Amino acid sequence: MNIKIAENLRAFRRERGNTQEELSGHLGIxxxxxxxxxxxxxxPDITLLPLIAAFYEKSVDELLGCGEMERDRKTSExxxxxxxxCRKGKIEDAIVLMRQALKDFPHNLSFxxxxxxxxxxxxxxxxxxxxxxxxxxxxxxxxDDEQRYLTLEIIIDAYGRKGNIxxxxxxxNRLPVxxxxxxxxxxxxxxxxxxxxxxxxxxxxxxxxxxxxxMWMLHAGKYTLQEKIFAYETVDKLYHLFLYDGNYGLExxxxxxxxxxxxEEYAECREEEKTINALKKAxxxxxxxxxxxxxxxxxxxxxxxxxxxxSVYRSDEExxxxxxxxxxEKKVFDFIRETEAFQSIGxx
Length: 348
What we know:
Elements: H1 2-16, H2 20-27, H3 31-39, H4 49-55, H5 60-64, H6 66-87, H7 91-104, H8 109-122, H9 128-141, H10 145-161, H11 165-172, H12 182-186, H13 192-220, H14 225-242, H15 251-268, H16 272-290, E1 295-296, E2 306-307, H17 319-327, H18 340-344
Antiparallel strand pairs: 1-2
Helix pairs in contact: 2-3, 6-7, 7-8, 8-9, 8-10, 9-10, 10-11, 13-14, 14-15, 15-16, 16-17
């Protein structure tokens, strides 16, 4: 409470443009007392609160910061509800929550970003215009560099999904090159445990980035089945190289997706046995991701890091297993759908 009074007294004085002497004269006390209140070294007697509030044409609640504290409490609760919905895969609920939150707090940039992120996360075409409009509002108002960069990442993807590549490039040109990112440039400065932890975080991030780069490379070009399988399996080896002890943590999800991609490639060529084997591998990783508990990495390349299944935002309320089952509903697997081997996947 003392802190809020100090902050508000300073803010009200700047807003009104008066001096500490003027308030002290109004109250019949010393200027030093007012100065102490503003520094947070004490607070006014309760009998003075109505007089101070009246001087600034504010309510006592506003002076005490009660309204501000209630606002902070409510926004914190909404933030936690949003995160909880995302962790449970209830993205549509998260969207509804943030839309309503913005009616109550229309200038809250954090809520705008949350909503833009959730709209983009659904990948639904009908949400992209709303997503872009929110991002443009944030970019027009935000002075937080990190928030602006994260917003640019969302709006670039949203324009890409709408097929407006030129607009996506326009926004992408506002971002720094990868070698100028905070995490990269700090590696040459930090030492000891702090430096080790950052470098290990970067190592796993780079493996994830290579995974994504290979996926998009294959998507953009024309490659033979053998080339695609070779590329995917090389990425698989990369995960095993840096997480050589089999403790994959959050990367179980990435490995599951990787082997689902391999299964789809084999399925396109009607390679029944290889498709089934790839699906079985994908399911092994999916099952591990589904039951992931809090823990720590143990590889020399990652042993300063920790993970928790609760920290992952899900695209499906049913979790990794539900997501894989939906992928297995694709028509490409119809040629083996009725086989015993296919139907047994995920049932053990």
